[in-house]
Amino acid sequence: MSCPSFPSSSRVAPRGAVPVLALLALACSGLAGTNARAANATLQSPGRGSAGRPAVVTSSSPTPAAPKEEARPHPRFTSEVQAFVENFKPGGHDLTGQITLLPPQESLKRLRPADGYVVELAAQEPVITQPIDLRFDARGRLWVVQYRQYPFPAGMTVTSYDQYLRTEFDRISPPPPNHYRGADKITILEDTDGDGVYDRHKD
Q1: Are 90 and 99 in contact (CB under 8 A)?
Q2: I want to staple 3 with a disulfide (CB 3.0 to 4.6 A). Which of 28, 90, 104, 112 is the partner?
Q3: What is the DSSP letter of 83?
Q4: pTM above 0.70, yes or no
Q5: Alpha carbons 32 and 203: distance in angstroms, whole number
Q6: Contacts of 136 (CB under 8 A, 6+ apart)
Q7: Distances in Å between the alpha carbon of 184 and those of 1, 36, 197, 203?
Q8: Phi and psi dihedrals of 83, rounded to 5?
Q9: HSE (CB half, 13 Å, CA atoms) of 40?
Q10: What is the pLDDT of residue 85?
Q11: 35-90, pLDDT tens digit by residue?
């Protein structure tokens, strides 16, 4: 409900009656809440200082609303969860970056493929991070789906973790095309010189 604008003026009401302008001004004053001056009404009752005279009501224009602040980026954690994360000792999820990651070539040396199989390094970080699906096309290119924003979806704040790190958020992302655009993407990798290593990529 919006309140009407009360121009500066004086109105004379019949003796013993409550002026309509006074009621509107007082109602708007209650609705405004944060600024009672938005509708300032002063009612002088008969018998107080001017006995026998009609009541006089004065009103002033509403105070302009303060400009809105710019929207801030949605926080990743609430303050309580932030404190939990800072003191978390990783077991599986590395929320605080405490686990040392091996370079791609060192990781490759530690793999033990089954007899008859060979593992080769075709692509690595930072080009590919957290892949969840991949497909080869007829041209030998590799299409990779990257779930980069897991476990922190864009536009959502973590409100709690349980003992298994199951997460609750402050909201649910709306469906496309009105969803919160995140970092997930599909990357196409291509080997242009035939050496088995993807040397070109595009998202």
Answers
A1: yes
A2: 28
A3: H
A4: no
A5: 51
A6: 142, 143
A7: 42, 49, 23, 10
A8: -65, -40
A9: 9
A10: 78
A11: 444 334 443 444 444 444 544 444 445 566 666 666 677 788 888 888 887 877 66
